[in-house]
Write a structure and sequence with these properties.
The complex is a heterodimer. Chain A is of the alpha+beta class. Chain A has helices at about 1-5, 10-30, 50-70, 75-95, 115-130, 140-150, 155-165, 170-180, 190-200, 200-205; strands at about 220, 225-230, 235-245, 250-255. Chain A is elongated. Chain B is globular. The chains are: A alpha+beta, B mainly beta.
Chain lengths: ~270, ~325
């Protein structure tokens, strides 16, 4: 019987932590102005309070997750029940007042309008939290018990399956992976990051002693390439092109004479 | 960062990636090439117009019998007044005029304030490069403009075509149906499939903030750090990133003409508009390029219509 009581604690802790991370990332990334105003409980507060409201919510979740993990104090147990019960009320209210807004439970991933699945999930989480109130061990001990005493019992897996069924975010994530914007439409890394990737490439090591200065005189991005233009000692242009995706991207270089049209293309595709 | 030589970027990029260097200008097609000619009217008669180009050269052009003119309303070429700035669509290497637009201007921006009771004065923010602009909406045009600008209040977008008269800009015709969202919340582009299309469709518009005879385009999707334009990189059309200096191949779907046009400026204002062009069919949403008037006319565009359905590719 005690196994049943503690079986849902690790799941609750994982859910709360994921919620915290996703909310902090959403606030941190900023996005387009106005994006926050379409998310979750934040739409119910005035504009300048929206980011702090999301952060306070994230901090609350983190405190509850940490409490469930290391302590058996009833404050955290009942706090979790109260948190999810309140979320259910907030989502119902959100659905009534702003049917266009997403629940924001997992930051901007939850931007689809609140449906019965999101509300069902908070109800389910309230139930799971209520079951865990009388668990005799901490979340940490429950998870450690699975590692020592064999695989988790079937009702833990059932909890995961129930939540997965009630999470519209999973479909959203699958869609994002499938329809990922091609590299040329994505916001590129900063110029300095690409420049340091160039400097750690074999092509750069082979040619950098010919350059007058290690700083490019011009740099621009076109499609999935960033170009850096340098001068060499013969006053020709040396141009490097660095591919923008991948950890060790392809680097190409060419020397182009400054006397107008007759270029001396010298491509060296390097798999650096 | 400045642009030491944006022309050079094209040569360097072509050399390093082994592209064949395309050249700016119209693609030779089946259609008879159009040329845009800009100048100040020195003398005009029903069959002949004499202008002074911005370079200070006098030119005499023949007016075709079917030619029409616009100077705030439709008129005949012979009725144009001396001293007005004209942009003409010409045939036969720029010798025969078939369409004249006099003192035409386009006012695109975000509404900052609206004052006045009968004739309205609208203050607009036209983007970081173009600054603020003040425009007068005469009473007779205000109904026509407001019906296409239902959110006629600060923070929303404004786009109109009009004329310059005595140093003031008069807005006369709406250039689009105003997008229903405030200028700062542009909808995100539709989800893209990995493996992009080689051509992107949308609407191409024009703007008069280019130099008089310049051929070029302003493009919304540029990297902010490269251009020093904090408002660029926004578009609802799913555009690829390009640079100032890239060559854009623009095709006018309505007139079936295409041309290679260099990107010369950041199109931060164009990127805010998520509208469609219904010039010959209904285009997908989003402005994909804002052309200079000369490029726009040479692609077969009609200035007072404000847009044409376009496809773009990398030249």
């Amino acid at each position: 019987m005690t196994l049943v009581l503690e079986s849902q604690l690790p799941l609750l802790i994982v859910m709360l932590t994921l919620g915290t991370v996703a909310k902090v990332r959403t606030v941190g990334s900023g996005g387009e102005p106005g994006a926050l105003s379409r998310l979750g409980p934040a739409v119910l507060v005035p504009g300048r309070m929206q980011a702090p409201a999301l952060l306070v919510c994230a901090a609350g979740e983190l405190v509850l997750a940490a409490g469930l993990l290391v302590s058996t104090h009833p404050f955290f147990r009942w706090g979790t029940v109260a948190f999810f019960a309140m979320s259910t009320y907030v989502l119902l209210e959100l659905r009534r007042r702003r049917p266009d807004a997403g629940c924001g439970c997992f930051g901007e991933v939850s931007s689809a309008p609140v449906g019965w699945r999101s509300i069902g999930r908070t109800v389910a989480l309230t139930g799971l939290a209520a079951v865990s109130v009388w668990s005799p061990v901490t979340g940490w001990a429950a998870a450690a018990g699975w590692v020592i005493a064999g695989p988790p019992p079937w009702y833990a897996a059932a909890g995961v399956a129930l939540l997965a069924l009630l999470s519209p975010e999973i479909e959203e994530l699958i869609d994002r992976v499938r329809y990922r914007a091609p590299c040329e439409q994505r916001h590129g890394p900063a110029e300095s990051v690409t420049l340091s990737k160039l400097r750690s490439s074999g092509t750069w090591r082979a040619h950098h002693q010919d350059l007058v200065s290690a700083e490019p005189y011009d740099s621009w991005r076109e499609l999935c390439w960033r170009f850096f233009a340098f001068r060499n000692h013969e006053d020709d242009d040396v141009v490097f092109a660095v591919y923008l995706s991948g950890r060790r991207p392809a680097v190409r270089m060419a020397v182009v004479s400054r006397e107008g049209s007759d270029s001396l293309p010298d491509y060296i595709p390097v798999s650096a | 960062m400045g642009h030491p030589s944006v022309e050079r970027r094209r040569v360097l990029a072509a050399a390093v990636l082994g592209r064949t260097g395309a050249v700016p200008g119209a693609d030779p097609g089946d259609e008879e090439p159009l040329r845009a000619v800009v100048g100040e009217v020195l003398d005009v008669s029903p069959h002949l117009i004499t202008i002074e180009t911005p370079g200070g050269v006098q030119e005499r052009l023949v007016i075709a019998p079917w030619a029409t003119a616009w100077n705030g309303s439709d008129t005949t070429p012979g009725d144009l007044s001396v001293g007005s700035m004209v942009l003409m669509r010409t045939l036969r290497d720029g010798r025969v005029v078939e369409r004249i637009w006099a003192d035409t201007t386009r006012i695109t921006g975000t509404i900052l304030s609206i004052t006045g009771k009968k004739d309205l004065t609208v203050e607009l923010d036209c983007g970081p490069h173009r600054g603020h602009r003040s425009v007068v909406i005469p009473y007779r045009a205000s109904g026509r403009l407001q019906v296409r600008h239902p959110q006629f209040e600060p923070g929303y977008l404004f786009d109109a075509i009009g004329i310059r008269r005595d140093g003031a800009s008069l807005a006369l015709l709406p250039a689009t149906s105003q997008p229903p969202y405030p200028a700062r919340s542009v909808p995100p582009p539709p989800p893209a499939y990995a493996g992009t299309l080689s051509r992107i469709a949308g609407t191409a518009t024009w703007s008069d903030t280019f130099d008089e005879e310049e051929r070029g385009a302003a493009y919304p999707m540029l990297e902010r750090t490269d251009t020093g334009c904090p408002k660029t990189g926004v578009s609802c059309a799913g555009l690829p990133y390009l640079a100032v200096g890239s060559l854009l191949q623009v095709r006018n779907v309505c007139s079936n003409r295409s041309a290679n046009v260099p990107v010369v400026a950041c199109g931060c204002m164009a990127g805010r508009f998520c509208d469609r062009c219904v010039e010959c069919d209904t285009s997908p949403r989003g402005r994909i390029a804002e052309l200079s008037p000369s490029s726009y006319v040479e692609l077969g565009g009609e200035l007072i219509k404000g847009c044409f359905n376009a496809q773009i590719g990398l030249g």
